[in-house]
Amino acid sequence: MNKNVTRALWAGLLCLLALAPFVVGTVEISAFQKVVYLSVAVMSLNVLTGFNGQASIGHSAFMGIAAYFTALAVQSHGWSYWAALPASILVAALVGALAGVPALRIRGMNLALVTLGLGMVFPQLPIRFTEETGGTQGMPVDEPLAAPAFLNVSDVAWRYWVLLALAALVFWLVRNFRASRVGRAVIAIRDQPIAAHTAGVNVAATKIAVFAVSAGMAGLAGWMFTVANQFVSPSDFTVLVSINLLLGMAIGGSGTLAGPVIGAVFLHYIPEAVNGTGIDPVLTPALYGLILILVVYFLPGGAAGGLAQLSARFAASRRSPDEPGQAPPSTPRLTSSTSHP
Amino acid sequence: MPRLSVEELELSFGGIRALNKLSFAVAEGELCALVGPNGAGKSSVFNCITGLYRPSAGRVVFDGRDLLRLPAHRVAAQGVARTFQNLALFPRLTVLENVLLGGHLNERPGPLACALHLPRHRRAERALRAQADEVLALTGLESLAGNPASGLPYGTLKRVELARALMSRPRLLLLDEPAAGLPHGEVGELGDLIARIRAELGISIVLVEHHMGMVMSISDKVVVLNLGRRICEGTPEEVSRDPEVIAAYLGEAA
């Protein structure tokens, strides 16, 4: 797609979303908040898995660490949300860097299992410290992230704008990074670690750094979670959440910028739509599974990859109306070892 | 003093001796071919030089520095670049991006400058683009710069790898079977390209190749390996007359 068109689309989307509180009601805005923090969470996984090729089923833990950190700091220690923001990201990033160390020696399925361990252990922690965290009952946070008085806007709208602005910042940073020397090195490690080595990329240091950055981004999503919900409980950060993030990434399109947004919309609205049709909500996972199989089979690049292909076809057919659109390039394998999760 | 000197290299995999006290030297600007039957240890030499394998004994001295003391990612910074026998490209990146990655160490804006799109990063990208355009022109890939690497013909991908290696402005270029799998007509072109790179850039090249026509026409020196040891070294003419080479590699004379 043309660079300017893409840029205009992103700007338009951002404007529309920013104006939403003037148009729709509180219920919708709450839903939008959830989509925003889910986008950041899916993007955090996308940076690690989609761009760098390291698998993780532990991202719910990084989210949970930051969400609980924020809740405890604000509720029990009188911090402001703003003070908790950098601190919670940092804590999640540090844990992520530690989790990245075993990733140097193991990869693929085994790495997924190690992170799975992290994801399974985390929900037990609040239960272990029930006195401080409320255990399985969860923990409400009384103080909201209030709008500054001079703005004269509702707290809900203010929180939504804060979340939206931070998410936009994250996506802008990822976009810059994708088109830079460091981003190319990160992708090179995913595709051909040995060739990356010989080109002078410090593979080990880069992988740990990406793990830390990804965990920090998941931490930001966790902070957003606490801001949006003013409530945290162990059931909000189970392994199932990690798996949903993976699902969102795969369906939206891994290794793309738009994919996480599409994935987050999917993760929030599909269960709602299922409820709306009167199908037993118990069947939602089955529906997820079916959609995932269809996407992997027919749209290996996810929804974002499919859209890019469509627009390329459209552009090609406009250039030469007689010729059929340029077929997506068949892909002879360049390497024997490349596979994208 | 030679630019590269490989000294008494020993490497074993289990009970198999891949390299057995192997020594050879490459002078500045020299094109040295390593030939020998499959399993002679040619690619193993490359993997030792670039730090992917750790030999049990010996030295690899490049411009007076022992490369074996460096981790693999630091070897590139010394001015060593290579291509791979089986392509090792980044399929989802474009040809241009593949080549740009070869210049990873040419310009070094940090992660923060990159993520924040600071002027330092933009300047670096412009400089890299200019360098990449030169390399793409030299290898005849200008028109393909925006194409994804996946889906291009094999011969073209070999040139993309060559371009990526050249992008790092190496002083020593290691080419691992660049002509393997090319249609006959393209082998001659590739030979010309390699000869031109050597002439224009004045770099030392080590060439591992089975295609004897190409080896004989462009090499200054040929080192013949068999079972991990050097059995002969000399000009292409000398080597092709050596009885031991004929026995081991070219087959008994009829």
From TrEMBL, chain A:
GO cellular component: plasma membrane
CDD domains: TM_PBP1_LivM_like
Major place of residence: membrane
Residue spans crossing the bilayer: 81-104, 111-129, 158-174, 208-225, 245-270, 282-300
Record field: compositional bias (Low complexity): 332-341
Entry's localization field: Cell membrane
Full protein name: Branched-chain amino acid transport system permease protein
From TrEMBL, chain B:
Stretches assigned to the ABC transporter domain: 4-252
Pfam families according to UniProt: ABC_tran, BCA_ABC_TP_C
Keywords, comma-separated and alphabetical: ATP-binding, Nucleotide-binding, Transport
SUPFAM superfamilies attached to this UniProt entry: P-loop containing nucleoside triphosphate hydrolases
GO molecular function, a single term: ATP binding
GO cellular component, one term: plasma membrane
Database matches in PROSITE patterns: ABC_TRANSPORTER_2
Alphabetical list of Gene3D superfamilies matching this protein: P-loop containing nucleotide triphosphate hydrolases
Name of the protein in its database record: Amino acid/amide ABC transporter ATP-binding protein 1, HAAT family
Organism (species): Thermomonospora echinospora
